Amino acid sequence: MNINDSLTEKNKRAKKMMLWFGMISMSMTFAGLTSAYVVSSSRSDWIEQIDLPFAFTISTFLLLLSSGTFYLALKNIKETLLKRAQTLLLITLVLALVFIYIQFQGFREIIEQGYYFTGAESSITTSYLYVLVLLHLAHLIAGIVIVLIVFYNSFRGKYSEANTLGFELAVTFWHFLDILWLYLFLFVSFYG
């Protein structure tokens, strides 16, 4: 192994480690928020159970499906099937955008049920719900930007069988967002 190979490997490890530190810190943020949700549930004004609209179930399925398409895109890049990988990236992007659209449809249904984020008709329960979902959406928008960058870089020929680091980091982050959403969805659905 020559010095350039050693530096390349160290660079890869450093970038992967930075991503993991970022994901761990995001996990701690959501762990803190869900812990506060649990502690706040002992308040007298706490709503025992909010029935989440079916739109959130559909959006969960779409986000998990997008994780699969993103993974398959990476697999196709490694097999030098660029056009197929680009198609899968485009499908991933469309699924993410549909996820966001359906999330807002779910919020519309929540508002129609009389659950508001702020104001006289709001409650601490609904405020937590909105904060958890909107904070995840903010991270998902960052994920969409990353998918767009990977998509753009695939057209520039940046990725090859031997160079997939940026793609791998993007897929790892995307899987993290999906797992985070699944955790939040199950937590809000079943905690009560």
Integer tally of domains: 1
Name the assembly state.
Answer: single chain
List SSEs in N-to-C order: HHHHH
Helix content: over 70%
Shape: elongated
Distance between the termini: 56 Å
Q: Largest sheet, if any?
A: none
List how many beta strands DSSP finds. 0
Textual characterization of the structure:
This protein is mainly α and about 190 residues long. The protein has one domain: Up-down Bundle (Four Helix Bundle (Hemerythrin (Met), subunit A)), CATH 1.20.120.80. It is about 80% helix and about 0% strand. The protein is built from five helices and no strands. Helix 4 (about 125-155) packs antiparallel against helix 5 (about 165-190). The longest helix is centred in the N-terminal third of the chain and has 38 residues, at about 5-40. The relative contact order is 0.16. The model has no long low-confidence stretch (mean pLDDT about 90).
Protein topology:
Blueprint: H1 3-40, H2 54-78, H3 82-112, H4 124-155, H5 165-190
Helix pairs in contact: 1-4, 1-5, 2-3, 2-5, 3-4, 4-5
Keywords summarizing the entry:
elongated; Four Helix Bundle (Hemerythrin (Met), subunit A); 79% helix; mainly alpha; 192 residues; single chain
Quick summary:
The protein has helices at 3-40, 54-78, 82-112, 124-155, 165-190.
